[in-house]
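User: Hey, quick favor. My workstation is busy. Could you predict this chain's structure for me?
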Amino acid sequence: MWFPAPRPLTPRLLSRLPDRHRTPRRTAWSDANRGGALLHSFLEGPCFDATGALLVVDIPNGRVFRVGPREWDLVAEYDGWPNGLAAGSAGSLLLADHRHGLLSLDPATGSIAPLLETVHSEGFKGLNDVAVGPEGQILFTDQGQTGLQDPSGRLWRLWPDGRVEKLIGNGPSPNGIALDRAGTHAYVAMTRSCEVWRFALRQEPFVGKAQCFVRLPGGTMGPDGLALDARDRLFVANPGHGMVWGTDPHGRPVFAIDCTSFGRLPTNLCFGPDGTTLLITESESGSILAVDIPQQ
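Assistant: No problem, here it is.
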């Protein structure tokens, strides 16, 4: 290690997918991504809506839940693979769907509508995550089955006026995406190369000097979801090791969150309304974990 060992933090159970929503079954998604395993769920995309409610997605079963301490409300269930979730405009939510592209969800009614299904009639590889930047720009990763064998994953940007721009076209499995608090820089997890890339966001569709901000140890899976706190400290879900890592704004590792007492698949992250509680979807156990992040 080039740096001192990061400070260990211990997660706690916030909520667990109720048993009535757990029916293990095999799906086309689990065939392609989990070796044909029987899955009760695969949770990702934690996000707070305009009312302050926490929502998560269940990819293989096409479900979106509103999370309560004990009961979870089924907001939507449809023929898709919802992956990323972010707060949109006018109380709506944005869904990055692996099968159907970029969708809009009304959390009050559960209605889903397409926002962007193709670019110039060409379909996506398979969307993964979504984030909203300054001036209403929507950034979303197009991961598909890309990896070291095929580093052709993409990062797209959709503007409110309908313009679509490809910012990255050579990603080895672009996955989670997050922006710094100023909205000037983007971070993208490249799962199969075990890296997080950082680059400046410009008005024009140009990315220059993309930098490897964090390089994680190799293993069975690299980084997945990302989140930044109010101090621009980056948190990285690393399901290959059952860990969440935290770095300072310069990429120096400062926190290590071991989730393996619950499961080995911490997939996605977000901060609670207080700005100091990190929430983690742990997909092996079908749980939401919480960690209090030190402010000093």
